[in-house]
Design brief:
Layout lengths: L1 E7 L3 H20 L5 E4 L5 E6 L4 H8 L3 H4 L3 E7 L17
Length: about 100
């Protein structure tokens, strides 16, 4: 699995310009199960995604299509991990390791 952090590199008014396209991009990836979840950081300086197990190169290719990245208003940082302990009901995430 991967934790992806998004860091805005432009003022929020520039980021907001691309927010609808970014939201569509996220919804598409979540519907394909290429992302497990996505949300905003608090305070709003970027976001966080949880991505399932896949080749790192595939994740890199997906992240490169983010409208925020394509328009130069954000960057991504990726941390890979293996889930070992999970809450009841989320056991399927362990197989994502």
């Amino acid at each position: 699995m991967f934790i992806v952090t998004v860091t805005y590199t432009a003022p929020l008014d520039e980021v907001d310009r691309w927010r609808p396209a970014h939201g569509d991009w996220l919804n598409h990836l979540i519907s394909r199960r290429s992302l497990v979840m996505a949300g905003r950081q608090v305070p709003l300086v970027g976001g966080v995604y949880l991505a399932p197990r896949m080749p790192a190169e595939e994740l890199d290719r997906l992240l490169a299509t983010d409208p925020y990245v394509l328009n130069g208003v954000a960057t991504h940082s990726v941390l890979e991990f293996t889930p070992l302990l999970v809450s009841t009901g989320l056991e399927n995430l362990k197989s994502q390791g």
